[in-house]
Design a protein that fits this description.
147 residues; mainly alpha; 50s Ribosomal Protein L19e, Chain O, domain 1; Non-ribosomal Peptide Synthetase Peptidyl Carrier Protein, Chain A; 2 domains; two-stranded antiparallel ribbon; 6 helices; 2 strands
């Protein structure tokens, strides 16, 4: 039986532990001598390779549902550093002000319009730089659209 399993594993290209032999084939195993005999039993469906075991997604699904419900978000579950809200704000505002200043310096934005947009940036009117650009284009505040 051990030799037959080893030969079958070799033929099927799997490990010995994955080779399964049908109870009906047990009597025929005494007559098996060559690889061709084993191949014949495989063709008859009396010997086969079990499917490979995967990693279960069940635990992940449960955890995912919990996270969607707002659980598992405490301090102990967090990895990596978080950017301070103030730091995020500063970076966002600096990017938008830099963009407005380049438009003003290139003469694409009138000083009055520049001041108005500058104050809107300060007042947190725009979500991000993309929002600012969209606003400028939609309200046609420059001669040609900004990118």
């Amino acid at each position: 039986m051990v030799d037959v399993k080893r030969l079958a594993a070799d033929i099927l290209g799997v490990g010995v532990s994955r080779v399964k032999i049908s109870p009906e084939a047990v009597e025929k195993l005494d007559e098996v001598v060559t690889k061709d005999d084993v191949r014949a039993l495989i063709d008859q469906g009396l010997i086969w390779a079990e499917q490979e075991r995967g990693v279960s997604r069940g635990r992940w699904r449960v955890r995912h549902v919990k996270k969607r419900e707002g659980r598992r978000r405490g301090h102990g579950s967090r990895k990596g550093r978080r950017t301070d809200e103030e730091e995020v704000w500063k970076n966002k505002v600096r990017a938008m002000r830099r963009f407005l200043n380049t438009l003003k310096r290139s003469g694409r934005l009138e000083p009055r319009v520049w001041r108005q947009l500058y104050e809107m940036v300060k007042g947190n009117y725009f979500r991000d730089l993309g929002h600012l650009k969209t606003y400028i284009n939609e309200h046609k505040l420059t001669k040609e659209p900004v990118r």
